[in-house]
Specification:
CATH architecture of the largest domain: 3-Layer(aba) Sandwich
Largest sheet: 7 strands, mixed
Shape: globular
Helix content: 25-40%
Number of domains: 2
CATH class of the largest domain: Alpha Beta
Strand content: 25-35%
Oligomer: single chain
Strand order of the largest sheet: 11-10-9-12-13-14-15
Distance between the termini: 46 Å
Number of strands: 17
């Protein structure tokens, strides 16, 4: 076997690959877990992390005052993934944190294997926590002989052992209907809103960079007491835009573009350039999941976007030459986990200071 990493682990015993994953810094030695949660504990849950975003999983555990579960993830020489849960989970309420960010297939397969291990170890309930749900853009048949991969991923999650799904800002909300198990769909908007209010933006107009994001933009505009506009676009292909038009008054205004996802940043940067040409004095972008491949980073460096505000649902390296503000959703996810564990309502997590995100 090779590329073995254990999480969490002491610094002296952590292999190189594990130290790279734990790039945010050393962790405290894990407190000892009892073999079974005591009935005197008001809150009892186990959280495990895959390799896609361990810092977020650690932050969630820190927010709710527990330790990250111990597991070993190993790759055989041919690349096959092997997972071992390093503590007793029999009868426990278990949450597996794993964003299906690039490399998407690897991270999904790792999650399936981890949930299978937990199911075979007799965990009483397994909740798949996907801060970012990959394959969400493939949610329907929009041309002949194509798959509905978002539904396939839903089927695979359930087959692997998931009893519940916790996710955030799905690209297509109808994906919730692909599951026959409970789905708790959270929004990053409350976290974004708190930050935006501190900026005290004047003459603000919230802009949706496409028609599909109009509902999200409308929610932001209501809570921020701002104007609303939209950039209507026509595509040549999935990666190329043919034409764009601004609908709404944006001249002399501060613009806040909102979207759920960006990878190549093509829509955002093209919309920002158009808004500047139409007289916008400042352009900010608020995106829940900023995956950002090399092309996206290069476009942002050359763009008219003054600040990109995003979250830590996806683990990214430090990017030079772009002003990126990363807000943590660990507290929001942690609170949802506590409420799910205690069978309490999560409805209030959709509400924030005068508005709703849904």
């Amino acid at each position: 076997m090779r590329r073995c990493w254990r999480w969490p682990s002491s610094a002296t015993n952590t292999p190189t690959s594990a130290r790279l994953i734990n790039a945010s810094g050393p962790t405290k030695p894990p407190r000892s877990w009892p073999t079974a949660c005591s009935s005197r504990k008001p809150f009892c849950v186990r959280i495990f992390s895959g390799s896609s975003n361990p810092p977020l999983a650690l932050a969630i555990c820190e927010a709710i005052g527990i330790d990250l579960g111990r597991c070993t993830v190993t790759a055989f020489p041919d690349g096959e993934t092997f997972v071992k849960i390093e503590e007793n989970v029999r009868g426990e309420d278990v949450f597996v944190v794993q964003s299906s960010s690039p490399p998407t297939n690897h991270h999904l397969m790792e999650m399936f294997i981890m949930m299978d291990a937990l199911r075979r170890a007799s965990a009483s309930r397994i909740t798949a926590v996907l801060p970012f749900y990959g394959y969400a853009r493939q949610d329907r048949k929009d041309q002949p002989r194509v798959p509905i991969t978002a539904k396939l991923v839903a089927n695979l999650l359930v087959a692997a052992g998931a009893n519940r799904i916790l996710t955030m800002d799905l690209h297509a909300q109808q994906i919730q209907g692909f599951f026959d198990i409970p789905v708790d769909h959270l929004y990053a908007a409350p976290v974004m809103y708190d930050y935006l209010k501190k900026l005290q933006l004047g003459d603000l107009v919230v802009v949706s960079p496409d028609v599909g994001g109009l509902k999200m933009a409308h929610a932001y505009s209501q809570v921020l007491e701002a104007g609303l506009a939209i950039v209507a676009k026509r595509r040549k292909s999935a990666a190329e835009i043919e034409s764009m038009t601004v609908i709404g008054e944006i001249r002399g205004k501060t613009i806040l573009m909102v979207d759920d996802l960006t990878e190549t940043a093509g829509t955002l940067t093209a919309a920002a350039a158009l808004l500047r040409r139409k007289g916008a004095k400042r352009v900010l972008a608020c995106v829940s999941h900023a995956i950002l491949n090399d092309l996206g980073v290069e476009r942002l460096r050359k763009s008219n976007i003054d600040e990109l505000i995003t979250t830590d649902t996806v683990l990214r390296p430090v990017i030079d030459g772009v002003k990126i503000t990363t807000l943590s959703v660990a507290g929001l996810l942690g609170e949802a986990i506590k409420r799910i564990n205690s069978n309490s309502s999560v409805t209030s997590l959709f509400e924030f200071k005068g508005g709703r995100t849904s």
